[in-house]
Amino acid sequence: MSGMHRVLIRIHSRQDEETVEQTLAGQVFEKDKSLYIRYAEPSASGDGEGVRTLLRVTPEELKVIRHGEVESEQSFRKGSRLPGFYRSPYARFALTTHTRELHVEMQGPLGEIRWEYELEVQDVISGRFSISLTIQEEVNPYDD
Predict the structure, then answer these.
(1) With the C-alpha atoms ordered 72, 77, 78, 82, is the resulting torsion angle positive or negative?
(2) I need a labelling partner for 43 at 20 to 30 A (CA). Which of 11, 20, 63, 90 fits?
């Protein structure tokens, strides 16, 4: 795979019993034997800058880096507890992820990444999460 690929990213996120689905435009590129997926989430309030998200993917580990209205880093490796952080204008705290499952099924820039984890905030479990990203080719309506 070479260069930057424009893609659509379908995000399905479940925290305990709450489910959120989004479809966002993004880019996928490869660098230093890692796959990078980049996309922007709209502002929660609709009037801010939103959050830019970058995922670094290897077969064994996933790292999620977010910048903008909030800043955070979380790392995921199956069977591991890994440190991270969350920072907003109002608060900053330490995070720990305990990853139960991590599946990376990519064919070049397209595929699926799924992971399940427990999130600890300041050493207290705040929830169980299940997330899947489906990365598909961006369809240009003007290609016909």
Answers:
(1) negative
(2) 63
